[in-house]
Amino acid sequence: MDTQGRRNIDPADQWVLDPETGTYQLRLDPDEAPSPSVPAQGSHRDSAERPAAPSRTASSSTGTAAGAAGASTPVTGGRRAARTGAAPATALTGPRSRRKGKPDRTRQSRKKKVLAWTGGALGFVVIAASVGGYLVYQHINNNITTVDVGDAGSKSVTHEGPMNVLVIGTDSRQGLGSQYGDTGSVGHADTTILFHVSADRSNATALSIPRDIVTSIPDCPTKQKDGSTKVIPGTPRQVSTPRFNESLGQDGRDPGCTMRLVSEMTGLRIDHFMMVNFEAVKTLSTAVGGVNICLARPLVDPKSHLNLSAGPHKIEGEQALEFVRTRHALQNQSDLDRIKLQQNFLSAMIRQIKSSGTLTNPGKLFTLANAATKALTVDSAIGSVSKLSGLAKDLSKVDTKHITFTTMPVMDNPDEKIRATVVVDQAKATPLLTLVKNDTSLTQAKKKPATPDPRLVGPKATPHDTRVNVLNGSGIIGAAQDTVNWLQNEQQVNRSDNGGNAPAPVARTTLEYAPNQADQARSLAAIMGLPASALHQGTVDAEPLAYMKLTLGADFTKPGVPIGPPTAVPGGVQQTQADSTKCVG
Length: 585
Fold this sequence. Notes:
With about 575 residues, the protein is an alpha/beta fold. About 30% of the residues lie in helices and about 15% in strands. An 8-stranded mixed beta sheet has the order 3-14-9-4-5-6-15-23, with helices on both faces. A 5-stranded mixed beta sheet has the order 19-18-22-20-21, covered by helices on one side. A hairpin with a 5-residue loop joins strand 7 (about 220-225) and strand 8. Helix 5 crosses helix 6 (about 315-325). It is elongated, with a radius of gyration of 37 Å.
């Protein structure tokens, strides 16, 4: 509106397409449907003398059709009409013939045709966008390299239950030139992180596995290019070999071999793997616009060429690679110190991706997806854009403040004099891995209430009617007899006997029983404080007076202390929360 209350109308808004004639018609009221031009009174112009369509700027939505017609000269009152030989605009405003009381069916028909034309154009745009999207999809899809790991992983992406993804950083230099060292190196498992996501997606644990752990490596079936399967023989543990990193690359081992070893070491089923090389660090850090880090002290490493002062930095590309590779700039110059630096870098990258709008900005998302898929090698079960995006969507449900980076507890290899390798510290690793298996958040995130396990629900036998043989696999001398004494003297479980030592030490306490002894099992579980995971029911009923078998494991401490999952991370186990912005170094 102008200051006098008149409407300010862009002249181009007065011209609309007439679907019947295919020409543009003048419309003085923008809210009305298009109507035929009305010739000046007394003139007899044919349709060829109708005014040309005016031009429009890209910002006007109502004049888009006019702009598409290619008109180039703006209309200003009657002067435009005079130059083209058309009647002036004032001559086109004669009275329109309208019969009151009857609907204007011609105008309604034109409205429908205009809508039909608009719908057709929109459909064309949608089809064009879909074709473009398909081409982008195929482009990104073709970036992905896959490896068939057979039964080492899951066959599909599951969105229910816990998920374990193994992230492998290989030190392969193939195709990267001589600047990074041995150009012929096939690459080993230089950096390995087991990413465990809880079933309810409330928390995640990223467990780094040091490359220099001395461990046996199991036999590994690998798929060959001709479709055949070749079994790579395992390597038994010796004094200082083999090391964990040899589970990849050595003797033709593929990522499935590393998956099998990690599953054997942790007791967790590995679902999928993702493998990246040096170039991936450079590409991804650049694609997200740089990664913000903070250093508590300067880091200078002539070997990796890193030179960073204390304080905050944004690193990407080559500098980011120098940061995650450095060892000699660190206080102990060890791989364990470098793991902490890498965890800090990955935490910062996760925060960067989530905070910079990358996941909601199509341009940024394409750049990241294009870079990520070029850098990734994955198992065939997630080897497409749709499967990877489904997996990423699942993983992104976890809040960064409930993602914890930690490291497999290790200690110096006692069998090696030069202390160049380490072994798993079972005393700390066992409870830590139990927390992970039980989906326990290392940041104490709230979890959805769990329903009672069916094994613990139901009627219980009386202590007098509970029969059990106790075996000692805990490593504690006299544990079985102490437990029997406690059961008989303090819990009235009179039908309990000492079964002696178990055939071998065991990590966890177990109770084996027959289906018709389930009530006795529930009773003993309540008395001993056994978790449902300790109860193992057979398939065949036992004789009426048969005894159950209770085997005490390393999780047993003494009678009367509940044998349940740990509730806290063992002391001395390193942890870093993904939302932490503390300075490192």
